């Protein structure tokens, strides 16, 4: 089993053009999977900086056609790279549900992380054929575990890493324990570590714990103006996945 790394990029920070440039640079440096968002009018979980950039982009482009066309071009030009979307519900609402579904499926995105617990919307997207990436918190609530058990083999469960040591499940003190717990409950979906992975050592920990992969958040984006540090950390993240793949091949 390969250990896969997905790198997150906010599409309009600091601008659409800068983000597209970085997307191509990530790919040129070996990225095989990216998670990309579109700006939301209600990005409640984002930092003030990201909220400001999203608001500015929506004022500049007046709708979602430009963002959709941009991501379609990225997908078309990089067919061997997995492209995952992360969206707030208002983005889908503004695009239109039926149009969004056709766009997602026709473009060939790998999965969608919906930043919402809207059960009805999630069910509608799944029924339309969209593969959802679902989050499991540090506490692995009964509801989250039940959802994870019901997920299909090729679905993705994003298990919180940043706060896992503060979990209320005292029978699962380590990250490996949490993965074993989910597997023993019958979870067949791929399990990716999410949030807080900032060093090679952290990446190695989740890899050794049995995770199928990891989602790297904005730790790299914060280094976009420090090229040497950016690509040094990027190479460290890549080396973990490469080492695991090499072990599997031997």
Describe the 3D structure.
With 250 residues, the protein is an alpha/beta fold. Helix 1 links the parallel strand 1 and strand 2 (33-37). It folds into 2 domains: 1-131, Aldolase class I (TIM Barrel), CATH 3.20.20.70; 133-250, no CATH class. Helix 9 runs parallel beside helix 10. It is built from 10 helices and 8 strands. Helix content is 47%, strand content 16%.
Content of β-strand: 15-25%
Shape: globular
Helical stretch tally: 10
CATH class of the largest domain: Alpha Beta
- Main β-sheet, in a few words? 8 strands, parallel
Rounded to an integer in angstroms, the radius of gyration calculated over CA atoms is: 18 Å
pLDDT < 50 runs, ≥5 residues: 243-250
Straight-line distance between termini: 12 Å
Based on the structure given, which CATH architecture of the largest domain is correct? Alpha-Beta Barrel
Going by helix content, strand content and strand pairing, the class is alpha/beta
**What is the domain total for the residues?**
2
Task: Provide the succession of SSEs.
Answer: EHEHHEHHEHEHEHEHEH
The third-level CATH topology of the largest domain is: TIM Barrel
CATH homology-level superfamily of the largest domain:
Aldolase class I
Average pLDDT rating: 89
Considering DSSP H and I runs of 4 or more, what fraction of the residues is helical?
Answer: 40-55%
